């Protein structure tokens, strides 16, 4: 009896082992078969050949070909157009056909991506280059018989722009070289000439414009001067230029503030000085190295601020053509 039971148990164990082995073999076979099918159906990765639309994307070792990540230069594996597609656009202020429809590059000064209109940060020629619209200078003059506020504005903003040293003569003799100014002249209001305050220097005249006072009354009688009362010398390159004691009168950004209006100044003589104890609501300390494009683009961004934060009055100062005129002469090729 004992022998029969022992034999029966052995048979059961052998059967269980056989079933387990068969199951294991079937499982391995099925798994290997599926993996083999996967390998057979796997599509080989397409080699990357261009950086257009994929600048600075993380490097994927499974994708053959060239690279467009930030480390591609050190490994000398960048695509042929890496520089033109990824580096050059971040330094440009205009759209090109190559940039139209680009993937947004966060480092760019302005954008040519499809979403730039909604984001309000397109390069100024985006519509012309990428959408084929005519340039503003080619459009007919707007009807100013009944001027109205731009959309989203409670009242019309006022922009005061200075092109230092721009002679009235340039508007006649060089009109073709300054089409935007010529268009403003043709479509807006212009004067045949302007009589400068004397001496005809940058600081006395610009501060006269914003205070309405002649130099003898606004405190700035020259770009370089000595005051025996202060026992101090004023110059455009010295620290004394930032001393409010030199600046008399009430600049227009203070007048605006007294009327409940806001001002934004991107450079103007006196705007970065604490005249009468305060600055404009938004102001930029003067830095002649800031590109003109950045100055203009920043003012355009200020114009897009929410109504509660947006200035009503703006100034924008550009050193040209005065700077080149001093270096090369007022009617020289250097000015053009």
Please give a structural write-up:
The chain has helices spanning 2-41, 72-75, 82-87, 116-119, 126-131, 170-173, 179-187, 202-211, 215-218, 252-258, 292-302, 322-328, and strands at residues 158-163, 225-227, 232-234, 263-266, 282-283, 313-318. The longest helix is centred in the N-terminal third of the chain and has 40 residues, at 2-41. By secondary structure, the protein is of the alpha/beta class. The termini are far apart. Strands 1-6-4-5 form a 4-stranded parallel beta sheet, with helices on both faces. It is elongated, with a radius of gyration of 35 Å. Among the domains are: 72-138, Factor Xa Inhibitor, CATH 4.10.410.20; 158-194 and 250-328, Alkaline Phosphatase, subunit A.
Can you give me a brief rundown of this structure?
With 336 residues, the protein is α/β, with parallel strands linked by helices.
Q: What is the straight-line distance between the termini?
A: 120 Å
CATH-assigned homologous superfamily of the domain at 158-194 and 250-328: Alkaline Phosphatase, subunit A
Major beta sheet, specifics?
4 strands, parallel
Task: Count all strands and give the number.
Answer: 6
Range of strand content: 5-15%
């Amino acid at each position: 009896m004992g022998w029969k039971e022992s034999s029966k148990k052995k048979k059961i164990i052998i059967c269980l082992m056989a079933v387990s082995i068969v199951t294991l073999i079937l499982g391995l076979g099925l798994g290997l078969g599926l993996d083999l099918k996967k390998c057979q159906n796997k599509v080989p990765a397409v080699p990357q050949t261009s950086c257009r639309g994929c600048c600075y994307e993380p490097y994927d070792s499974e994708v053959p070909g060239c690279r467009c990540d930030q480390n591609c230069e050190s490994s000398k594996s960048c695509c042929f157009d890496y520089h033109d597609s990824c580096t050059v656009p971040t330094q440009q202020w205009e759209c090109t056909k190559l940039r139209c429809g680009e993937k947004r590059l966060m480092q760019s000064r302005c954008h040519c991506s499809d979403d730039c209109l909604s984001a309000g940060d397109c390069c100024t020629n985006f519509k012309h280059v990428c959408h084929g619209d005519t340039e503003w200078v080619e459009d007919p003059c707007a009807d100013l018989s009944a001027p109205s506020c731009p959309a989203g504005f409670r009242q019309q903003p006022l922009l005061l722009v200075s092109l230092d040293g721009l002679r009235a003569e340039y508007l006649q003799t060089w009109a073709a070289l300054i089409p935007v100014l010529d268009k403003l002249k043709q479509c807006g209001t212009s004067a045949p000439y302007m009589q400068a305050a004397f001496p005809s220097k940058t600081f006395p005249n610009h501060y006269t414009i914003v205070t309405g006072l002649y130099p003898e009354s606004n405190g700035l009688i020259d770009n370089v001067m000595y005051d025996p009362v202060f026992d101090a010398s004023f110059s455009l390159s010295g620290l004394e230029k930032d001393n409010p004691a030199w600046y008399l009168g009430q600049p227009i950004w203070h007048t605006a503030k007294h009327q409940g209006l806001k001002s934004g100044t991107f450079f103007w003589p006196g705007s970065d000085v604490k005249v009468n104890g305060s600055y404009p609501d938004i102001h930029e300390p003067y830095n002649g190295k800031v590109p003109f494009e950045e100055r203009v683009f920043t003012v355009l961004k200020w114009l897009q601020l929410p109504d509660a934060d947006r200035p009503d009055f703006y100034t924008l100062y550009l050193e040209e053509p005065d700077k080149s005129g001093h270096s090369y002469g007022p009617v020289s090729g250097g000015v053009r």
